[in-house]
Amino acid sequence: xxxxxxxxxxxxxxxxxxxxxxxxxxxxxxxxxxxxxxxxxxxxxxxxxxxxxxxxxxxxxxxxxxxxxxxxxxxxxxxxxxxxxxxxxxxxxxxxxxxxxxxxxxxxxxxxxxxxxxxxxxxxxxxxxxxxxxxxxxxxxxxxxxxxxxxxxxxxxxxxxxxxxxxxxxxxxxxxxxxxxxxxxxxxxxxxxxxxxxxxxxxxxxxxxxxxxxxxxxxxxxxxxxxxxxxxxxxxxxxxxxxxxxxxxxxxxxxxxxxxxxxxxxxxxxxxxxxxxxxxxxxxxxxxxxxxxxxxxxxxxxxxxxxxxxxxx
Length: 313
What we know:
GO terms for molecular function: homoserine O-acetyltransferase activity; homoserine O-succinyltransferase activity. One of its GO terms (cellular component) is cytoplasm. Transfers an acetyl group from acetyl-CoA to L-homoserine, forming acetyl-L-homoserine. The longest helix is centred in the last third of the chain and has 17 residues, at 278-294. The protein has helices spanning 11-17, 25-29, 47-58, 82-88, 92-95, 121-134, 143-153, 199-203, 242-252, 278-294, 309-312, and strands spanning 3-5, 22-24, 36-41, 65-70, 89-90, 100-105, 135-141, 157-172, 186-197, 209-214, 218-224, 229-232. It has a single domain (34-297), classed as Rossmann fold, CATH 3.40.50. By secondary structure, the protein is α/β, with parallel strands linked by helices. A ten-stranded mixed sheet has the order 5-4-3-6-7-12-11-10-8-9, with helices on both faces. The protein has a two-stranded parallel sheet with strand order 1-2.
């Protein structure tokens, strides 16, 4: 949350130069507060696990957050109870006239397929198109990040020679990004994917800013439109044992997957892993809700400006 100070205080200029949000007394007098409206497009098979992970990270906000859970209409999940979806979820066709302060598009286990061959691609493309005019800030996670980068910017994914799995060290590339306020210079982040980013194509688009990168995992946090689009190739939301469960699942299927790197104690798959990223995960989501959503979204969502309005003019 911002600190409230006299607008004439000399410290104001120094703090603003460091990209620290301060609110003048004059603005505070006219501030209105309402609940944030957030949509979660949950594409993961284990929907309840993903719900818990994401809601846990957003529950530490001092602002009330209203959540709409969305599932796809064009594809029926085989791993989710129809009764659960009917009771707790809605679909895009039911909310397409609604505007949101924020949206989260999760990962999905379809990354080796071409985007247009994914059963629900047309529906997801419609959601992403809708987000440009009707969502203030959209957070894309893992496959959702690759899908968003391809749909919005034409950056294709690259198939890796083996699964990238583990907890990798990342370095902040922007010391003043509000998303990393309170972060250490280096931080751990889990990854679990078979694809990577076309880094050369990424760097050719000046509107895309790489905020965090790993020597082993590549570009991990990318921002566009001054925080209105954020792409994360990893999983801040993962529980301590999520990679372990995925590793066990893959090996039981007979898949040739590497042991998750920098994850199990002494690299022993029989040892219970310890989370080293939980604090940064909570901080990242708190920063996203505060700086990319709450501090920036208009009070009246009806006055929301299209994301690419400046480019269209």
